[in-house]
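Much of our argument rests on the idea that a fold can be written as discrete symbols. The amino acid sequence and the backbone structure tokens for this protein are reproduced below:

___
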Amino acid sequence: MSQFDNVSVIKKANVYFDGKVSSRTVVFADGSTKTLGFMQAGEFEFATSKKELMELNGGQWSVLLPGESEWQTMQAGESFNVDADVTFQVKVTDFADYCCSYT
């Protein structure tokens, strides 16, 4: 899906890692949320509180998922799922434009 219709957007940005990662929260009519974000080059560790679907819209990243020992490099159009209450790592060499859906 390239567009979300009939949503509300939280005006205040979510800013992490000294501004290298930022996102905006999108709220749907049914109360579900997604974040639309952008990562600059760097290495980041994220902790989840809900299950997440991470979709890469542009750029490239490498991810180290919980329980894995090998990094996976992903291009625009690829995605991965992460369980609740875990941590995962992301390496970005240029930029990553992403959408995170909370399930």
